[in-house]
Every structure is written in C-alpha cells, then in structure tokens.
Amino acid sequence: NAGVTQTPKFRVLKTGQSMTLLCAQDMNHEYMYWYRQDPGMGLRLIHYSVGEGTTAKGEVPDGYNVSRLKKQNFLLGLESAAPSQTSVYFCASSMRETQYFGPGTRLLVL
Amino acid sequence: AQSVAQPEDQVNVAEGNPLTVKCTYSVSGNPYLFWYVQYPNRGLQFLLKYITGDNLVKGSYGFEAEFNKSQTSFHLKKPSALVSDSALYFCAVASGNNRLAFGKGNQVVVIP
After folding, report:
1. DSSP A3
2. With 90 as the cut, is the pLDDT of residue B1 above it?
3. Theoretical Cys-Cys bridge with A91: which of A23, A27, B38, B46, CB 3.0 to 4.6 Å?
C-alpha cells in the first residue's frame, strides 16, 4: 500500500499561473482533505470531500477549487496563483476520525 | 466551535529526560482528541487518539497521552526522550464530518 501520495513534490509558479495538485489514496477511504501549512499557523483546512462526487469548503477556501471525480483521487486547483498561496500543501484521507497524510507539495509563487 | 491550544511554541528537553507537550481543548460534547508528529520535510504521522475509555492512551514510538476532563487537557508524554523525537507535534480535535481542527504545533528539541 502506498497510502496517500501527492504530485508534484515541489513547484514554482509565477503570479497568475494556474496549476493542479493531485492527491491519490489506495485505502478506499471515503473522506479526503486538503490543508495548507504555514509557519506558526498550524494546518488550515482548505476543502474536503465526504465521498466521491462531493466537495465542501473548509476554513480557507478562497482562491482554490477542488474536484473528486473518482473515490481515490482529490484534486486541488489554483486558477490564478498569488504570492499569498506560497505554502506547503498536504492531502489527507480517512475512513473515520483518524486522518492519514501524504508527504506534501511545496509551492512557491513568485 | 471545537478548538485546541498548544501554549508553548518550543519545548527543549535533554535526552533521557521526560518529555511533555501540552494541549488544552475547547469543545461542546465529548471530545475526540489526537496527536500527530511531523518530521522535517515529511507529512504528519498519527501518534495516538482518545475517543472514550481509559484516560491514559498509549501510542506509537513510546508516546502516551493523558486525557483530563476537569482541566480540559490532553498532554502528550514520553518517559525518556530521544534525539530522534525532535520534531513538530500537533494536537487536534474532531470537529464534525470527520474533520480535524489542529493546534499551531510545538517544536520539540531534544538536546544530546
């Protein structure tokens, strides 16, 4: 089992560019989450999904969109990247309360 | 809203000494509480959780946590710290729809 994987590991964008972060899990989990981690601020929930075909807003959803077309995948999109979106992005999945995390994507927006 | 607080930014401890990382919570109803650890340039790893039952919860890597309802605390402990325990530790509380609300994290530095 690979668990939770994230693609890419690192990316540099220019302001205004778009990109998609991919999260995949092979544990047949219903729930999936996207977080961002910034120094001194812990993890903040961007969007989450309670099952295939569903998405919901978290704590900091502005500037991001998500899609869950397949149960095993959860995509996070940035339509027009801004320097404030420079962060480390983590995906997680769960069947119940305990979440399992991917290794993260480090994004730098110039 | 459910929340947790980790009052210390950094905890320094000598190798071999007991390690305590503090967490207090604020919830309506019964809390589901978690501890995660993050090593440099890695994702978060689950350490342990309290759902119900015994107030002392044992987890991975020799860690344990004590749930104290009267003090609304869930402190993480290890009897004898190792240099390899140096990492970022997060306390979290379940907040509906299997979401978690995380604290800001505690950097633990174990000094050889």
Report:
1. -
2. no
3. A23
Inform me whether the pLDDT recorded for A23 exceeds 80: yes
The DSSP line for B5-74 is: E---SEEEEETTS-EEE--EEE-SSS--EEEEEE-TTS-EEEEEEE-SS-SEEE-GGG-EEEEETTTTEE
Whether residue B75 has pLDDT greater than 90: yes
CB atoms under 10 Å from CB of A108, counted, come to 13
Residue type at B3 in one-letter notation: S
Q: Do A97 and B90 touch (CB under 8 A)?
A: no
pLDDT over threshold 80, residue B11: yes
Instruction: Evaluate whether A57 touches A76 at the Cβ level (below 8 Å).
Output: no
Closest chain B CA to residue A103: B43
